[in-house]
Amino acid sequence: VRAAQRGDREAFTMLYERFARFVHALLLARVPAVEAADLTQDVFLQAWLRVRDLREPAAFAGWIAAVARRRAADHLRRSRLEVPLDDRLPARGGQEASADAGAALAAIRALPEAYRETLTLRLVEGYSGPEIAALTGLTPDSVRVNLHRGFKLLRERLGRSS
Amino acid sequence: MSNGHERDGALGAFLWDPTERAHPDVEAVTQRLSPMRFDPARRPLPLPRRPDRRRLALYPLAAAAALALAVYGYVQWREQWPAGQPWPVAVQASSGTASAAELTVGQPLEVAASTDATVAVARIGTMRVAGGAELTLQSTSAGHHRVFLSRGAVSVRLWAPPWSFVVRTPAGEVGDLGCQFDASVDAEGVTRVTVRSGWVKVENVLGESLVPAGASALMRPGVTPFVAVYDDADAEFREGVRAYEAAPPETAGSRLAGALAHARPRDVLTLLVLATRTSGATERDLVQTALRLSPPPASIHREAVLAGDASEIWQWADTLPLPPPKSSWWRNWPDALPAWLSGLR
């Protein structure tokens, strides 16, 4: 982080490689999937220009999470008047898989707010419970509860819809 | 989906640690969501060049330095003027027709009654010459511009070091101390000056008067220039002071006594200047009135003032709230701006 603050592009690229999935998961919990990837890059470009303002390098994860949440809120505010996008991805896996993934993500986003980020981190990006606790600053117990209750709720809803 | 018979422990364990024994429900959802996964390696980040903050911090300084240099250059430029170079004149007739002319050294400018003329005072300001006025440019060069107003009225607006511009009249000289003023000369050569910003000095061989913004002064040929009186003073006070200065000494005192009753704290400058020109009971009346209206600061000795100590009186006058003194003429910089921009003071 300190090297990135000094303007080291390689160091910042390493931060991107390490934290991009984390940021993407936070965004997926808030914005349509088709926009989350572009917004992830936006968040890191913004961070590249502002990382010098970060006083405590150890707080990078919390800081980038705050940047991502703000960016998502801005994006939603601006796109309120635009045509809403759904969560289907044109990318990997074909139309059917994409629609299926979109439905699952929509079900996560319909859950209470406390569960959304934890579930996208675990189920989309594959982070473990301890990693989620370390990245988000939540206590391990909170993460455990969010995962367990959130997933049971999600399973119910997916089961109902299928 | 499983039917819910699996143990919560196995579900929780796999959710918490993906290396534990896989739970089919979690695996199924993870599989469904896999197209959403983000792969940074497939989306490299195009990092732009980051602006150097140290360099950015220098921009305002550089801009300020450039601005200061430009202002300094402009101020230097506007004070320069080739010796003897005519001044441009724009003549505006009441019929609406306009024409251009020049005011050359030694050549009188007579402005017809139905017109008025705007004269550029070299580069340091402008002078509007009212219809019916007669004006001659006597000399012009950098920092030294002299005109003679034999009759009529002019309105001058300048920003330049003191005494750069002087209007000479049959009664004496009206010297600009970095300001805006009106001057007029009547058929008897009596010169009236009203100051709108800064200071003006009126003087002839017999003496001088300093006139601050908001005040007027009078100068008759062969007579010491009258003291400055504020235009917003009570009419009784203004006329009383003028009558005192114009009247023969034996009758003047009574005129002044009535005027003093109408003086305000702002008129203390007039009272003090007048006090330095009088003596005896009149001087005492003037100083006592001034003391009553606006007690001086502790640094001024009342006894010395009452005793008529002129230097103490002048020190007191210097403490009064007045426009920037002539040494700070540059503080009247709004007079360098176009009239519409500086609020048409």
Structure notes:
The complex is a heterodimer of chains A (162) and B (345). Chain A is mostly helical. In chain A, 73% of the residues lie in helices and 0% in strands. Chain A has eight helices and no strands. In chain A, helix 2 runs antiparallel to helix 3 (33-50) and helix 6 packs across helix 8. By secondary structure, chain B is an alpha+beta fold. Chain B has nine helices and 15 strands. Chain B has a 15-stranded mixed β-sheet that branches. In chain B, helix 6 packs antiparallel against helix 7 (280-293). In chain B, 33% of the residues are buried. The interface between A and B is large, with 51 and 30 residues.
Content-based structural category of chain A: mainly alpha
Low-confidence stretches of chain B: none
Biggest beta-sheet profile of chain B: 15 strands, mixed
Report, as a whole number of angstroms, the end-to-end distance of chain B.
86 Å
Find the biggest chain interface: A-B, 51 and 30 residues
Overall mean pLDDT of chain A: 87
**Helix percent band of chain B:** 25-40%
Uncertain runs of chain A with pLDDT below 50, 5 residues or more? none
Count of individual helical segments of chain B: 9
| Radius of gyration computed on alpha carbons of chain B | 37 Å
Please give the largest β-sheet of chain A: none
- Which term fits the overall shape of chain B? elongated
Share of β-strand residues of chain B: 25-35%
Q: Give helix and strand order of chain A, one letter per element, not per position.
A: HHHHHHHH
